[in-house]
Description:
Helix content is 25%, strand content 22%. The chain has helices at residues 20-33, 73-84, 113-126; strands at residues 11-13, 44-51, 56-60, 90-98, 131-135, 140-143. It has a 6-stranded mixed sheet with strand order 1-6-5-4-2-3. A hairpin with a 4-residue loop joins strand 2 and strand 3. Helix 2 packs parallel to helix 3. The protein is globular. Zinc ion is lined by residues 72, 74-75, 111-112, 114-115.
Amino acid sequence: MTRKDILTPIEVLHRDELTSAQSALVDKAIDATRRSYAPYSRFHVGAAIMLDNGVTVTGSNQENAAFPSGTCAERSACFYAGAQYPEARFQSIAVAARDASGELVTQPIPPCGACRQSLLEYEKLAGHDVDLLLVGRNEIYHLPSVHSLLPLAFTSF
Ligand SMILES: [Zn+2]
């Protein structure tokens, strides 16, 4: 028997440690939380994706009374980017969330499994790692790639 351990490298950053480009992307993700439609969970998530054409696309969670019909912020952003700019490639992604009180969540918000899978497809299309910034009130997680969040991923059939 052999053993393989999977490690997820995470840089824990404070807001003042971000580059200006990272900080701008984080601001756009936070701003996108204000366009969330979350009357059921009252958990407002925003995502911002910087594309290699210079455009930043944002998305927010959009809920529905028929729960499975809604979608997360990350998928609303990445599918919008794919639909509007099919030739553009992802460079970096930021995700932020506010709770029912309206405050940014304390801990950085990670994408759900379905969003990890969806974002991974766009990272594969990009042909390079796509930076991830997961925003919390007190700290920001910086991950070097989507695949670092989804090891042993299903990427082809
Ligand atoms: Zn999700």
